[in-house]
Amino acid sequence: MRVRYLDWRLGSRRFLDRLRLFEKMFVFFLVREDGDVERALELIHRLGEKHGLFDEEFTFEDLKRHLLSEKIIRATPAGLALTPRGERFVRTETLDQIFSGLKPDSLGDHRTVHSGAGRERLTETRPYLFGDDVADIDFRRSYQNAFRRAGEGGFYLEESDLEVCETERYVSVATCLLVDVSHSMILYGEDRITPAKRVALALTELILSRYPKDAFHVILFGDVAKEVSVRDLTYCGVGPYHTNTHGALQLARRILMRKKHSNRQIFMITDGKPTAILVDGRLLIDSFGINRRIINKTLDEAAECRRHGIPITTFMLARDPILVRFVEDLTRTNRGRAFYASLDRLEQTVFVDFIRNRTRKVR
């Protein structure tokens, strides 16, 4: 029997590094398998057996015990399932993985280019106005103004001498993220729904943890559009649906119109042109070519969003000429933006744009 001795600190670090790797794998497979814990663990076990990821130092059972002890998963009569803490862990881990790939200068902090009521002082000052916060008075410059005005005749402070520091204005944003769950998101062996869900999970955690004054809503759209809660997001999957883009935009606009935020925006992730609309409560479907009735109805809704000051940013997961032509028309009608996003860059593209978009007030 061969015995290998290691420094205990090195051994501990190796163990934690391996544990961290399996946690990342678990989160990835969990999102891909629509929150099915048993299936995610089965895939990890199969992958571990194939590539020799498990050994005597760390076994597959050690991984399960860790997830159970950390209350990420729990045993139920139907099998293993996520706990509320595990759902939060999935969102947090997804957010960390996405941000780890961003460039340092891509990150923002909700700032604007305008001065106004905010948390951080600027070097610029302006004359005091009635109603300004007394705590923002720059007494050094105010005293200088008083000495300059009074000269040698004695020092006294008048209201006209007072100057206040400008502060950087911070804004809040109401955002609707529209995720296409039509059947084409998993056609031809290409998984487009997993990166789209990862974006939704990470954006949700970003809003909840870093921008608590914001509003964030996720809408899934196939035959019909529906809003899903934060808890349901992990378990959402693709169905045998068509693409009702009109319904998604209409629902998003109605949600955003109820918000008091000065900034409102729609992000839409899709891989196909609109193929369905609701007409008098019945679904009109046409999956072949371009149906002008469906397209025009969708463009009308984009124009309605523009009239209410709601820009639409579209992330296309395909380069189909018909899709490109539709998105160009949609963007022109709404005066929004469009990105041709690859599956491996979608998450970073969305996050860079999401945070940068917050640096100006949408008018």
Short description:
This protein is α/β, with parallel strands linked by helices.
Describe, in plain words, how this protein is organized in 3D.
This protein is an alpha/beta fold and 363 residues long. It folds into three domains: 8-82; 116-170, no CATH class; 171-357, Rossmann fold, CATH 3.40.50.410. It is 43% helix and 20% strand. It has helices at residues 8-32, 37-51, 60-69, 84-99, 139-150, 193-210, 230-233, 245-257, 292-307, 321-334, 346-357, and strands at 73-76, 79-82, 111-115, 121-127, 163-170, 173-180, 215-221, 225-228, 263-270, 276-279, 282-285, 312-316, 337-340. The protein is flat, with a radius of gyration of 27 Å. The N and C termini lie far apart (73 Å).
The total beta strand count reads 13
Poorly predicted ranges? 105-118, 359-363
Largest sheet: 6 strands, mixed
Percent of residues in helices? 40-55%
Q: What is the beta-strand fraction?
A: 15-25%
Order of helices and strands: HHHEEHEEHEEHEEHHEEEHEHEH
What is the CATH superfamily classification of the largest domain? von Willebrand factor, type A domain
